[in-house]
Amino acid sequence: MPQRVWIALLSLDGGDPSTLAERLSITAKRIDGLAASDPDIICLPENFATAGVSVSPAEDLAQPQDGPIAACIAAKARELGTNIICPLRLADAGRIYNTALVFDRSGEIAGRYDKIHPTDGEIAGGITPGARPPRTIDLDIGRIGIQTCFDLYWPDGWRSLGEQGAEIVFWPSAHPGGKYLNAYALLNHYFVVGVCGRPRGSIIDITGVTIAEQGIWEPWLVSCVDLERQLFCWTEEHWRKMHEMRAHYGRRLALDVQHDEDTFALHSNDDRLTVKDIVRDFGLVTWEDYFDLQNKRRDEAASTE
Fold first, then answer.
1. pLDDT tens digit string along 108-146?
2. Widest pairwise Cα distance in the chain
3. Angle between helices 68-80 and 20-32 (to 10 degrees)
4. DSSP for 66-95?
5. What is the helix (H) or strand (E) element at residue 247, kind and residue range?
6. Which strands make up the sheet holding 142-146, listed edge to edge?
7. CA-closest candidate to residue 8, choices 200, 198, 221
8. What is the DSSP letter of 38?
9. d(CA 179, CA 193)
10. Which of 74, 79, 179, 196 could cysteine-pair with 107, CB 3.0–4.6 Å?
11. Separation CA 168–CA 218 (nearest Å)
């Protein structure tokens, strides 16, 4: 059956808080505003609680895992029964990290990501880089990964998350990210969620197409994705079967073709029909199997030269 996940994200614009307490109060109210949408996961922007708050240096902005920032967001996760990604400057074992804590629906920490590529300014301010490679985090909604802001420019981290089976990669940041996010979604076949301090967040499909964008009128964005959605390579056999599948399933099947890329993606509109059922019934070759076969044939051909 479809694996639908409702994703929400928040921006920081408006409110003009001058203290941490004011920022947390504004954020908590915005999270409350999402309650009617019943999101499965909420992601906040990079350093959401301390951005624009007049406190320095980095040590004064950093908090322990049980500090006021984490406590506030953990309480909201419990109250709404949702997963929340909480970026903050974390003080841990004498070091400071640009961290994203992941709270599950009970408000417990399910995982953590430490920004691997801090900027020069962050390093000068005392931020320690996280360990390579980034690790995925398993939640009740599926397997997620996180990259943060400046990590955008290192493809190896994004690729590693895909190799570990990430289904959604969240990117809390200080800027929107642009086409990089679309490229990573397409190349790694996972959904990407960009979360910016400005109202410029986005949710991107596995085909690299932006399916939802945040704008100036609301400080949040809510949209649904189906984690069962898969991408397939065009072949003559697949092309023939696409017409047969459409005729057989009708509206139960959502199938869209990426004409320039010679690919197609599909998911089910019927809770009783899975993509695995479709693959089995029509003998479709998954992306991984198709290219494993192509690599094998290439190696065999090369060995005979």
1. 999 999 999 999 999 999 999 999 999 999 999 999 999
2. 70
3. 10
4. TSHHHHHHHHHHHHHT-EEEEEEEEEETTE
5. helix 236-249
6. 137-139, 142-146, 168-173, 191-196, 202-204, 210-213
7. 221
8. -
9. 13
10. 74
11. 23
Would you say 88 and 72 are in contact if contact means Cβ atoms under 8 Å apart?
Answer: no
Cα–Cα distance for residue pair 275/86, rounded to 1 Å: 33
HSE-up of residue 278 (Cα within 13 Å, Cβ side): 33
CB 173 within 8 A of CB 148: yes
The SS3 of residue 254 is strand
11-39 pLDDT, tens digit per residue, is 987 667 778 888 999 999 999 999 999 99
The H-or-E segment that residue 245 falls in is helix 236-249
H/E element, 194: strand 191-196
Find, among 47, 32, 40, 36, the residue nearest to 100 by Cα.
47
Contact 5, 227 (CB under 8 A): yes
Strand bridging mode 142-146 / 137-139 = antiparallel
The pair of three-digit structure tokens given for residue 126, joined into one six-digit string? 């005392």
Q: What pLDDT sits at residue 54?
A: 61
Decide the pairing of beta strands 263-268 and 41-43.
unpaired
Owner of token pair 């030269």: 305
**Tokens coding 75:** 């309480």
Q: Which residues contact 32 (CB under 8 A, 6 or more apart)?
A: 76
CA distance 58 to 84: 24
Q: Containing H/E element for 110?
A: strand 109-114
Alpha-carbon distance of 145 to 171, in angstroms, equals: 9
3-state secondary structure (DSSP) of residue 179 = helix
